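Researcher: First entry.
Model:
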Amino acid sequence: MKAIVFRAPNEFEMEEVPKPTCAKDGMVVKIEAVGLCGSDVRTFGFGHPKLTPPQIIGHEIAGTIDEIGENTGDFKVGDRVIINPIIPCGECYYCKHDLENHCMNLTFVGTHIEGGYAQYVAIPNIAFKSNCVLKLDDKLSFINAPLVETAASVINAQKNIDVKQGDVVVVVGSGPIGCLHTQVAKSRGAKKVILSEINDSRLEIARKFDNIDVFVNSSTEDLKEVILKETDNLGADVVIVACPVGKVQELAMDMMKSRGKILFFGGLPKDNSFIKIDSNNIHYKEICIKGAFAYTPREFNEALELITQDKIQSSKFVTDILPLEDIKKGIDIVKKGLGLKVILKPWK
């Protein structure tokens, strides 16, 4: 089969490799579409501490079951499926307390085992035990399905920060994550959603989403002034920092109403991950700051349902569909912010 093999930072090419073997109690999926995730773009450029090359990465996988073994439930060859790539062990402390995203023995497709930038992928039996293989409704196309993985992390984040009916929500960053945050916030009952971005072209792409009430180019407008104007000088109920910029995390404090909530979504560069904050803001305004990481199988299932029902408009996110061999073109699109979601197709 053909696959993109990562050998070292900035060293990866399409290669001919053996098709994966189907385990006695596992399955092999013929990949029809795989999403190009921003985290994978970083791995291609800088590597990953939990990944040992050579490796096939990629984790936003949708396809058709090509081979299947025993003890795999009611799945059969030919079923259309999507893979939840975060496979918990089900046995550790966190798994037993409904915090599977913090599993101490996590198996991550594309990191610990070979992933989806290929024509086929082998999925182990533990994925069935953990409800990490889900059937796709016929009305959901393979092209739109990979967005489920990204949406699951956004749903987990907003449950964590408790976005609720009547909130004014500010999202900083209009990439696919930021735009998903706007859609999920509205689905949870947010009264007003304000989207801020410094990149004009990305802001223009985001204007296709009719759930966003106010667009702000923060390179030419004062975001704080806009927020105060839109909230009768109170500030936002929730600010979601959906960009990896420490300065923005610091400035989020100034946008809040009393008892407001800040969500840091996405990590900062490991060599520059410290920020300065005025702790008096937290004390006197009773501000809550939270982070969010990954998702559990519950959020993955919720995301699939929302996208299948078109409550998250997945088709509006997919801006580029490329053959797998053009992955470097896709990476360039992601880095330059020229599109939202890039989907790669392994088969011509």
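Researcher: Second entry.
Model:
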Amino acid sequence: MPTIRMEVALRRQLAPLVLTDRRFAVAVAHRRAGKTVAAVQRLILRAMSCPRPDARAAYIAPTYGQAKRAAWDYLKRLSASVQTKAHETELTVSLVNGARISLYGADNPDTLRGIYLDDVVLDEYADMAPRVWPEIVRPALSDRRGSALFIGTPKGRNDFWLRYDAAQRDPEWAAVMLKASETGLLPADELEAARKAMTPDQYAQEYECSFDAAVIGSYYGKLLDEAQTEGRITRVPHEPAKQVETWWDLGVGDSTAIWFAQRVRDEVRLIDYYEMTGEGLPHYAKVLQAKPYIYSRHVAPHDIAVRELGSGRSRLEMAAGLGISFEVAPNLPVDDGIGAVRLMLPKCWFDDEKCAAALEALRQYRKDYDERLKVFRDRPRHDWTSHCADAFRMGAVAWQEQRERMKAPLRGPMRGPSGWMGL
């Protein structure tokens, strides 16, 4: 290959992300800092400088749509002098040295299985399922000792915070935090206007990179903070003398989530959690059998009773054939179910090890945000947190129904002071 000269205009504050010699890097950046442009510049430079003739690099956003909206135009424009073709349908750019840069969404991680990567950027990593990195992306780097950059804005102390915290102590990692008050990238009057228009938590999270600010729009964040403060997120051992109930959200072509709970007096103890993608009911039946639990009941959403067009049978019937007898949770509006969760959470204890991933999902479960109107919609955001939160909602609805049934006056014949009395 002949020598190819590229001119890249880097923002001084973002140059460490693009030019770092560390294999792994984490960058916490305020809004409008230009992190996506810097990420694309990094991918192009690394793909062009890779000695392999078939180098592969990837930009991953929380969803495929986000990847296209945020990075595709930048990738085409910034690579124009060194590209041979931009594949619009595949969101892939081919470069003159044989390298390719592709865009992906973490909402469909199976599209990443089986590929290899020399470099990857995970943008808005705080919005991705924690398993995406260790289970899918990290193995794709192993064959070629590929490198990775995590970038984003905080969303509480989730997996993004863990990566940043660990990176500060690991010599193989670089860690950068770019606060709006320190970078000088945004005018002071613009920051002041943003501060006036936002809550203190919103401003601290979006512009000052605070991991301690409440997750904006979170349904259960404050209640889980209370549980943490009160010591209800800790080791919660299984009580062999007590039966276990399970709460389910059954995905069709995506994740199925299962909570394992025990009721001890007025407490609801969450002792275990399981989630998997791309498996049928026989897989989950084996999971239940492998656990050392005696089950009292299994609670599933109402759509489990819907018959499938192909087989003519419902998953309720198929589960029964596998020895799982489901109870169908009341079909309440989502808002009512969220209200039931909020009522139940103060009664809940969580095992901090077995339920760690599930707790993170509950913390991140939040209202959908309309980017165009800049307002929260009156519905939950559908992302990697949804299956876990929906399964938990099934348990809360069943818990509420049971409490109401216990409080309700008995109907029908009952023993009164002077014999049988109909009420």
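Model: Note on the second entry: Residues 386-407 form the longest helix (22 residues).
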